[in-house]
Amino acid sequence: MTVEYVEVRDPGVLWKIMDVMKDAWGMSDYTEAVPPHMMWAVARNGGFLMAAVEDGEPVGFVMGFTGRDEEHGLYHYSHMVGVKRSHRGHGIALRLKLEQREWALRNGFSLIVWTYDPHQGLNARFNFGKLGVVDREFHPNYYGEMRDSINRGLPSDRFRVEWWITSPRVRERISGRDRAPSFDEVKDVALSVVETKDRGGWRAVRSVRLTTENDLVLLEFPGDINVVRDNDFEEALRWKMELRRAFTYYLRKGYIVVEHVPLVEETRRNFYLLWRTSLKPVLEGDYPWR
Questions:
Q1: For the chain (length 290 residues), average pLDDT per consecutive 10?
Q2: Which of 179, 265, 271, 286 is deepest in the core (most CB within 10 A)?
Q3: Any residues with CB less than 8 A from the CB of 208 and at least 6 apart, and which?
Q4: pLDDT of residue 148
Q5: Hey, how many other C-beta atoms are within 10 angstroms of the C-beta on 282?
Q6: CA distances from 95 to 28, 122, 233 (A)
Q7: What confidence score (pLDDT) does residue 150 get?
Q8: 225-231: which pairs have CB atoms within 8 A and are 24 or more residues apart?
């Protein structure tokens, strides 16, 4: 597979990028896709739009633009990154994000921000494990109703993650010199606060403990929320409501989501590792579990 990564300069490509969106998110039509005129406005006015191209056809893309808030000032906001389902597993999304990082550095940014569904384990592994993001914000039903096949019927709860692209944490993580901890490395130093029950191929949530007695907390979330939803929609909704309580509580108490920790047993289990600390030691890579 030979894939080129090119900044979009031809508006004729934009409809094909919409096709990538439609495929990547399982959209029934183009209602949820970013229209070509908006993508072109971003690309022509200081934003970033790059396509991963194979044999002249886009198979992936990333798009971002400048954001601003009171805490951070100006930052780069990464609105979407998507890869056709037929081309997943080949490192295309990672390469797109690394290209976006290089573009942001050249343009004077030290921070890239985006939202994602914290219940999606593969996205958690990608964002925390491969890129080294951190999270300090949780937003219930951030986008309101969404109608693509991934989000349809469930509230669009989101993390708003921070990718501090000049930090030692990020440099070490993307270079491969640093890695996320294993479950065995943190199970004895972090307090597990979610009780679950095996339902045969997936797990149901039984209770969530809200406590500040430990600076490190392991917060379990579904091994695959899509499998839970397909087997028991009400249980998938319960997972979201219980985790909504947990994310809201712990982030308000000063915890930072710092890692995704997988555990592969008969079924896959996922955990977030939360650390009650300031941002500086996280970005410096001074981790208490080492």
A1: 94 96 92 95 97 96 97 96 96 98 98 97 96 98 77 86 98 96 97 95 95 97 92 94 97 98 91 98 95
A2: 271
A3: 193, 194, 195, 219, 242, 243, 245, 246
A4: 66
A5: 22
A6: 28, 16, 34
A7: 67
A8: 225/117, 225/119, 225/120, 225/121, 226/150, 227/201, 227/202, 228/202, 228/203, 228/204, 229/153, 229/154, 231/199, 231/201, 231/202
- Burial level of 7, CB count in 10 A (0-12/13-18/19+)? exposed
pTM surpassing 0.90?
Answer: yes
- From residue 196, give the alpha-carbon distance in Å to each of 204, 222, 282: 5, 10, 29
Report H helices in the chain: 14-24, 36-44, 92-106, 121-124, 168-175, 183-186, 225-231, 233-252, 279-284
Give the C-alpha separation, 47 to 77, whole Å: 9
Looking at residue 238, its pLDDT comes to 95
Both tokens of 260, joined, read: 């995704």
Judge whether 135 and 145 are in contact, CB under 8 Å: no
Burial 50-80 (b: 16+ CB within 10 A, else e): bbbbbeeebbbbbbbbebeeeeeeebbbbbb
CA distance 155 to 241: 9
How many CA within 13 A on the CB side of residue 23? 17
Helix (H, G, I), strand (E, B) or coil at 214: coil
Please list the residues that pair with 74 across neighbouring strands.
68
Backbone dihedral region for residue 195 (phi beyond 0: left; psi -120 to 50: alpha; all else: beta): beta
